[in-house]
Amino acid sequence: MKKRICWVLFVCLCFTLGWAQSVRSYRQAEDSLTVVLSEGEIRLYPLADNAVRVKYVRQEPVLPDWVYVGNDKPAWSVKETGEEITLGLPGLVVRIDKEKGTLAYFTPEGKPILQEKERQLVASSVQGEPTRCAAQCFYSPADENLFGLGQFQDGQLNVRGLSRRLTQVNTQIAVPFVLSDKGYGILWNNYGLTEFNPADSLITLTRTVSSGDAETVDVTSAEGGKQEVRERFVFTSSLIIRESGRYAVMLDVGQTMARRHHLKIGNQTVFDMKNLWLPPTTSAIVELEAGVYPVEAELEKEDRPKVYYRKVTDETVFRSPVAEAVDYTVFAGKADEVIAAYRRVTGEVPMMPRWALGYIHCRERFHGQDEIVQTATRFRNDSLPMDVIVQDWQYWGKYGWNAMRFDESGYPDPKKLVDDVHALDARLMLSVWSKIDPASEVGKLMQGKGYYIPQTSWIDFFNPDAAAYYWENFNKRLLKPYGIDAWWLDATEPENDDLLGRKVWNQTVPGEVYRNVYPLLVNRTVYEGSRREMPDRRVMLLTRSGFPGMQRYATATWSGDVGHDWETLRRQIVGGLGMVVSGQPWWTYDAGGFFRPGQSQYTDPAYHECFLRWLQAGVFLPLTRVHGYQSDTEFWNYGEEVVALARRALDTRYSLFPYIYSEAARTHYGGGTLMRPLVMDFAGDSLALAQKYEYMFGPSLLVAPVVEPGKNRWEVYLPHVQGGWYDFWTGAKTAGNGTWETVPVTLEQIPVFVKAGTILPLASGKPQTTREAADAGWTVRIYAGADAAYTVYEDNGIDYAYEQGAYALVRMEWDEAKGELTIHPREGSFPEMKAVRPLRIIRYAGDRQEKQVTYEGEKLTVKF
């Protein structure tokens, strides 16, 4: 009751009673500007030329600073007039209104980009401990578009006005960052639950009758696979809308996970989504006329649903019920400039190992090491490209959950397993959890030291001693003995919201304080430990949850235990775009879906079509992988047609390797983003911003996945670019440019287009591994119509020598007026570098011309 009273009081104080505070004084330190208000202080920390962190505090913060990293501070200045105090940076200007205490943000040229509206920080409590509720409201113009917040399953790409509850659960990743098409980004710094545009009006639905439907399903859980009986019940209420308009609606099923999202308001179906696991909340924006509406939801028997709603207004709000301060950072500039600055202040992205960018093959699950080696061997024998093969859970067998030990009955010699996989020029990824069976050998040790989160089997990574001991065992039991290449850190949320209501860090801090940040600490532990113990081998981590700053730990995320259908495919693309625009560049999904349609999957043409569309889009994701629950996911189990089309898709992925690896380098060195929602390249094009399923793959390729069945034509929006667009598959010039293009499609491929003014480096031939792709000759495609430039990046792909400058760059420039390609002298080198490389140069310009040359590191000019 005390917590509920605090919440209501907080809402009233924050948004009803007003809060404006005048400036009393200010002081300048080496790293910050402190503005003293009538209550509390605003502290501004310049972090980069275009970034400033803002804290509104009433007492000294004590929480550790896990998100931000030390970096060179920019030059900045302070000026005062009668009305305001101004903090100036080379790329951002902050003005503090002395009468109201509000902040406004401008470009150096004086263009407004963002303005505070309201702010509040009020006393509260959690688990009997003192805390504060923090909120910050910003003005948001009606024509603004906002993107980000991580990976959600609600299918919403533009989140302006949307109400979302940011929690970490299976299939949902909360990253409290948004990017605006108005030239800024905001990182909200809070480790706990955050409400984005909180909707405080609510109705509670009452269970009425069973729908009569029940089914027994196989599901995954933190204890392994199990069966559950799922019954559906109807819940009802009524909703009074007093004013017509657009309303943000959020359904909360009242459990830690949902099985179905369904809601009808009047005759309008707002949500209708089913999966074996879904987040507990889902959100949408609906148009509602004033009136009284019957509300109906068909959900699970044990659900306790509530519907939250609010009228969409011209504001954006972040609110955290457990906080020390109002704490956020503003980044100014174009999308790439914002993301680059975000990475400078929260950590740069290391280079992934070369092999991680090839095909990653997984199933749930391999049952022994012979099965893994035989499968990898068949990939090679069938000329199917593959670089990584994955052992999912339960290899520990009789030793207990995540016992950091292989059960000898299926894995008699794990070191030989790794060696056999390496002999096939492949790598092994192993599933490892942050939970350990307390009855296992390692678990007993952990339990004896008090290193568990109370009443759970999750390790308390907030306790540095517990994290260090976890790593000590991980290192001596798994890393050092076997030489395993990559780690799949599953369920790092932790699953089932298990921090809620418990105390962590030796039972000294309420779990709500750190509710969303657990994945950051788990991945930090494994990354930093791996770099210490294996300094000459790049780390690659795949994990199911994330948080700002986690990109610095060589982590990739995937979208969790999702279904297999068309609607789920659409939602994964949208969720992935939300994730990458939140500054986390390495993302993927389970191509084909995790929960699959049983034995029929192997023979059902309808599923094969859907699976192939998942895979074809997956070729143009940062990472490409297949996975499936209780499924033998190898292509040959689905018939010859699927094998042929899968081979074609993977051939495309491997041909793109020089481009993909160069973009990986751009991600590391320049803060780039490989998978790009169209706001990143076409922020001024309202039609482009409305596209939820199209995206750019690097700077040159526009990908338009086919996300509906039975299509032989597909509508593609092509934003305006100088010189227009080309079909990636044929090289033909298209008519569309700033218009819709109707594209014929077959089951063989999805529409992909190339911008005019592109130099696209490809690997020649049909490499089966990324090592072969790196060693191959290059096919350099030139798409004429505008001047172009591209830099191909190379290093050895396996260690950290690039950090000491062991890499090479090949700069290429196309002069449209001269019809001339210049390949500049190679810059840099590394011992394994291929010094001489045959080049097949193809120019597309309505026609096709080809020339062949040999590049030996010296300047070359090719005239067309």
Automatic annotation (TrEMBL):
| Key word Hydrolase present | yes
Give yes or no: UniProt keyword Nucleotidyltransferase.
Answer: no
Q: Note the PROSITE patterns from the entry.
A: PIPLC_Y_DOMAIN (PS50008)
Residues in domain PI-PLC Y-box?
635-680
Name the Gene3D superfamilies on file: Glycosidases, glycosyl hydrolase (family 31), Golgi alpha-mannosidase II
Q: Where is the signal peptide?
A: 1-20
Domain of life, per UniProt, equals: Bacteria
Record key words, sorted = Glycosidase, Hydrolase, Signal
Give the family from UniProt: Belongs to the glycosyl hydrolase 31 family.
State what protein this is by name: DUF5110 domain-containing protein
The taxonomic lineage of its organism, from the top, reads: Bacteria, Pseudomonadati, Bacteroidota, Bacteroidia, Bacteroidales
